[in-house]
Design brief:
Chain A is mainly β. In chain A, 0% of the residues lie in helices and 50% in strands. Chain A has no helices and eleven strands. In chain A, the strands form two sheets. In chain A, strands 2, 4, 5, 6, 9, 10 and 11 form a seven-stranded mixed sheet that branches. Chain A has a four-stranded antiparallel sheet with strand order 1-3-8-7, with no helix packed on it. In chain A, 39% of the residues are buried. Classes of the chains: A mainly beta (118), B mainly beta (110).
Chain lengths: 118, 110
């Protein structure tokens, strides 16, 4: 059974760093792109970027380029999304998804809620 | 404001049919495949349609997708109260070299 399990909810202060994770199982992790999607409270889905785990070259939406870093450790079938300096506007639910293609996620993680507040 | 335009809301009675539109441009829908997602309250999105009109395993044939030019449409027949959710279209934008979603449509089954 394909599963993507994300790390737990986080509460951080502005300026702090954060790295959330997404562990894949039930499939060959290095054979599918992994994507990240943001959903701000009460808002729609936003495509952030994707990465092929067997490749060190993530692709980012222009809206998120330079704001976050996507990475992966294929040895433990885990993808990551990280911030070096969080802002209150980063408060959102973040989802990872296994990608059928560059924009279609067929299996999704349960989401990680990130709250940034002073 | 999303580059892909969806109606904010649609409604229909149980058993009826509803369609949800997604309008884009030649740089996105016009030259790329479209996907559709269902997001039930408090849950992660679920893929309903990919490659314009294909259904993943387990998705009932009550859900269908089509594309014409720079617009795509999701159709749902035999509406059930359990279909009440937010629905999103998604595709690739070749100009931005990025994926994108529509703004979402809230379906109410009256």
């Amino acid at each position: 059974e394909v599963q993507l399990v994300q790390s737990g909810a986080e509460v951080k202060k502005p300026g702090e760093s954060l790295k959330i994770s997404c562990k894949g199982s039930g499939y060959r992790f290095t054979s599918y792109w992994i994507g990240w999607v943001r959903q701000m409270p009460g808002k729609g889905l936003e495509w952030m970027g994707i990465m092929y785990p067997d490749d060190a070259d993530p692709r980012y939406s222009p809206s998120f380029q330079g704001q976050v870093t996507i990475s992966a450790d294929k040895s433990i079938s885990t993808a990551y999304l990280q911030w070096s300096s969080l802002k209150a506007s980063d408060t959102a639910m973040y989802y990872c998804a296994r990608q059928l293609d560059l924009w279609s996620g067929d299996y999704w993680g349960q989401g990680t809620l990130v709250t940034v507040s002073s | 404001q999303s580059v892909l335009t969806q109606p904010p809301s649609v409604s229909a009675a149980p058993g009826q049919k509803v369609t949800i539109s997604c309008s884009g441009s030649s740089s996105n829908i016009g030259n790329n495949y479209v996907s559709w997602y269902q997001q039930l309250p408090g849950t992660a999105p679920k893929l309903l349609i990919y490659d314009n009109n294909k259904r993943p395993s387990g998705i009932p044939d009550r859900f269908s997708g089509s594309k014409s030019g720079t617009s795509a449409t999701l159709g749902i027949t035999g509406l059930q109260t359990g279909d009440e959710a937010d629905y999103y279209c998604g595709t690739w934008d070749s100009s931005l070299s990025a994926g994108m979603f529509g703004g979402g449509t809230k379906l109410t089954v009256l």
